[in-house]
Specification:
Layout lengths: L1 H31 L14 E2 L6 E2 L7 E5 H6 L5 H5 L5 E3 L9 E3 L2 E2 L11 E5 L2 E3 L12 E8 L13 E7 L8 E9 L3 E13 L2 E12 L3 E3 L4 E3 L2 E13 L3 E15 L4 E3 L9 H5 L2 H7 L6 E2 L6 E17 L2 E19 L16 E19 L5 E21 L16 E24 L2 E21 L10 E23 L2 E12 L19 E13 L4 E13 L2 E6 L9 E6 L2 E14 L4 E14 L23 E12 L5 E11 L2 E2 L7 E2 L2 E11 L5 E8 L7 E7 L2 E6 L4 E9 L1
Parallel strand pairs: 7-10, 14-19
Antiparallel strand pairs: 1-2, 3-9, 4-5, 5-6, 7-8, 9-10, 11-12, 11-42, 12-13, 13-16, 14-15, 16-17, 17-20, 18-41, 20-21, 21-22, 22-23, 23-24, 24-25, 25-26, 26-27, 27-28, 28-29, 29-32, 30-31, 32-33, 33-34, 34-35, 35-38, 36-37, 38-39, 39-42, 40-41
Length: 747
């Protein structure tokens, strides 16, 4: 009887497993049977709008990298963290979600005050994202991402001294109804769902709605607070309404981004030589070592139950009138952004600081309202001349409050008359920016084109400062004042391009860049509220963009950029023996960056594609002396966040199966060299490698795709950001091994 029961259970199990077995057999048969013949493949044309008109990337005399919609989705690219390792010269180093530090070709800004701006600008659908707390939106529903390297002082808005990141979303489908639903699951309880619905409404109208929602548990265990940190929580929405008439095209857009996460799990970092027996004990505070010894980056011990919250939304209207003489484009946009974060700064419950500072809490609230208006005339393309001219306006108001709290009791960051245990300051800054620009492309001879462009920019800032000094040392004077200043610059561009073959262009360019001055964050006293000078850049570049065959493409650029008056913030001891540090933002003098950038795509076979880039940067401060710091002489030192070597190698394999479906596999290796994180000689962010892979199957009608993927498969421990505090180094680790599965349905 028992034997019969067992046989019955085995029979039932076999019956239940039969469909699975047949499915696996079908997949194996499809893979093993001869594949359908592939059409001979050729390199795809890459169309960009980097110079405000659609054109082949090969024809633009500028170093540009474009990431397609397919790359963004398959590589699990969600923000600038994922973009930076795929772009030559670009680094991204977030201190927190509200303090995003972007560097491109050595130019970066790490002052997050209300009165300073970024050296690298981010644009979403031609709308400028101004604040440091709002330049890292969720990358979803994307047609492509264009990264323009080097000063973009002619056709783009303010402060593109290092380069511009141009994010282009998909537009509503005017021909037919389409939709997409993607479900993504992974380790650390990752749950993600994204969708899009787009189609015509009739009479020239079309609409689109898209969303993404992602939750993931934290991968760091805070053993002091007994909770998970470094989680993820994102909600993003986008809606668009398009009217496409005979002479008028109008695009109305709305977007919303929300972020809600736990603490960043900042961690003390050992900065000595690993071979030294006293390395761990001497370099890392004992309390952290006792709690997290040998547990790696997945362990933290900060005493503050921190968080980061951000909400940003915007409305824009883009009108495009087409005439026989060209197009008149008007882009009107309004944006609001609110960011609130509260995080531990030392990463240990008992720091090496005096007992007064054993619990250091940094609490910030940042609110920005921004209005922009651009008018652009794009002349009808002629046989010999193309021209663009325009006007640009920005009005921005930022209200930012920050407190440094070492009270053992919870604080709401409300100061008392003398500050108590809290140093507190508030800045309210209003920026008004005007610009006029123009560019002419003149094909003066067969195969030759001369580009002449220029932009005049004028910025004015008015800031109200309030500060209350407590028992801490960051703010050492109670004061209030109002300061205003203006900055102006003319930034021209000259480029000469020669089409040496039907599919090859060489070019040389000289361009200037400008970033307005401003007012430093966390002024220690009223004397530190004086305005900063503007940054300026002069870039010399020669390059080549060539399709050497229908299967091999090589783009190369050699550049030399000269920076003047770079604005840099440091937080460190005023002397090498000091117990703590203060914030200082200064114009660092001049600097030079010499670099080489190579990007290649090779269709090795009809199934296998190799692609990638290599970037070399030799950066150096010139005559730079920074008074009032422990290491004032920076002359001859490399720039901050400017790794010398960087590369990315990708292999993509596609196999068409007998039933018409497609099996695709990809492998990506990304490397970033050592880079300075701060001015102190021990504050070096080590090199790191990341290995990613993906295998996906797509049904023959492209309606269904199923994939498995993995990121950082070697599970390398690497630092995404470091900073100094009291002559020690604190870091934020990058993500460990992540893996999951994705299913996408299209109709």
């Amino acid at each position: 009887m028992k034997t019969n029961d067992r046989l019955d259970r085995q029979g039932a199990a076999g019956a239940e497993s039969a469909p699975v077995t047949r499915a696996l057999a079908a997949v194996l048969t499809a893979i093993l049977l001869p594949a359908s013949p592939l059409q001979a493949r050729e390199l795809e044309e890459i169309v960009v709008t980097a110079e405000r008109r659609a054109e082949n990337l090969r024809d633009v005399p500028n170093a540009i990298t474009a990431l397609s919609e397919t790359t963004v989705e398959q590589a699990q690219i969600h923000d600038l963290t994922d973009i930076a390792t795929r772009i030559p010269g670009l680094t991204f180093s977030p201190f927190s979600p509200g303090q995003n530090i972007v560097a491109l070709r050595g130019a970066s800004s790490n002052d997050d005050g209300a009165g300073t701006d970024n050296s690298v600008s981010v644009f979403v659908d031609d709308v400028y994202l101004g604040r440091v707390s709002n330049i890292n939106p969720e990358m979803f529903d994307i047609e492509r991402i264009e990264v323009l390297r080097g000063p973009q002082g002619t056709l783009y808005g303010k402060n593109t001294i290092g380069g511009a990141i141009n994010v282009v979303s998909t537009q509503p489908n005017t021909q037919e109804l389409e939709g997409k639903l993607r479900v993504n699951v992974g380790n650390y309880e990752r749950r993600e769902v994204a969708g899009l619905l787009s189609g015509p409404l009739g009479e020239g109208w079309a609409a689109k709605a898209s969303f993404i929602h992602r939750k993931r548990d934290g991968w760091v265990e805070n053993v002091h607070l007994d909770k998970k940190q470094k989680d993820d929580g994102v909600l993003a929405l986008r809606g668009q309404l398009l009217y496409a008439g005979d002479t008028l095209e109008a695009l109305f857009s709305m977007d919303f981004n929300q972020l809600d996460i736990e603490d960043m799990a900042r961690t003390p970092i050992a900065t000595g030589e690993p071979g030294d027996p006293a390395f761990w004990a001497a370099s890392v505070p004992g309390s952290y070592a006792e709690l997290c010894r040998s547990r790696g980056s997945g362990c933290s011990a900060g005493p503050i139950d921190g968080y980061a919250k951000r909400e940003a939304w915007g409305l824009s209207m883009k009108l495009n009138w087409r005439t026989e003489y060209g197009e008149l484009v008007s882009i009107t946009a309004y944006r609001e952004n609110e960011a609130d974060w509260n995080m531990d700064s030392t990463g240990t419950p008992a720091s090496p600081l005096p007992a007064l500072f054993n619990q250091l809490n940094d609490d910030i609230f940042d609110s920005t309202e921004q209005f922009t208006q651009e008018l652009r005339w794009v002349a009808a393309s002629g046989e010999t001349v193309d021209a663009i001219a325009g006007l640009w306006f920005l009005s921005e108001k930022t209200d930012r409050t920050e407190c440094f709290d070492n009270d053992v009791l919870p604080s709401d960051c409300t100061p008392t008359a003398d500050g108590g245990a809290t140093d507190w300051y508030r800045q309210v800054n209003e920026t008004t920016s005007y610009a006029g620009f123009g560019q002419v492309d003149w094909r003066f001879s067969d195969g030759w084109e001369l580009t002449l462009g220029g932009r005049y920019s004028h910025d004015r800032k008015e800031i109200d400062n309030q500060a209350i000094a407590g028992d801490f040392v960051v703010i050492n004077q109670t004061f209030s004042n109002s300061v205003s200043e203006s900055w102006s610059a003319f930034t021209p561009k000259v480029a000469l391009a020669c089409q040496v073959a039907d599919s090859a262009t060489i070019y040389g360019a000289v361009s200037w860049g400008f970033k307005s001055g401003g007012f430093a964050a966390a002024p220690q006293g009223i004397e530190f509220t004086e305005p900063l000078d503007q940054e300026e850049a002069l870039n010399y570049e020669v390059g080549m963009k060539a399709d050497f065959s229908e299967r091999f493409r090589l783009n190369a650029a050699v550049f030399h950029t000269q920076y003047d008056d770079l604005q840099i913030q440091t937080f460190g001891p005023l002397t090498a023996a000091a117990a703590f540090g203060t914030f200082q933002t200064f114009n660092a003098g001049d600097a030079d960056v010499l670099g080489v950038e190579l990007e290649a795509t090779w269709l090795l076979t009809d199934r296998l594609t190799l692609s990638g880039f290599y970037a070399y940067q030799d950066s150096e401060f010139g005559n730079t002396n920074i008074p009032g710091t422990a290491f004032p002489n920076q002359s001859g030192q490399s720039l901050i966040r400017a790794p010398e070597h960087k590369f990315n190698i990708n292999a993509d394999y596609v196999q068409t199966l007998a039933n018409g479906s497609e099996l695709a596999a990809s492998l990506s290796w990304r490397y970033t060299d050592d880079q300075r994180g701060e001015l102190e000689p021990w504050a070096v962010q080590p090199q790191f490698d990341l290995l990613d892979a993906r295998v996906g199957w797509t049904r023959s009608d492209d309606a269904l795709e199923v994939a498995v993927w993995g990121k950082n498969l070697a599970d390398e421990e690497y630092l995404g950001h470091i900073y100094t505090i009291a002559s020690s180094v604190v870091g934020v680790y990058g993500e460990p091994r992540m893996y999951g599965a994705t299913a996408t349905y299209r109709f």
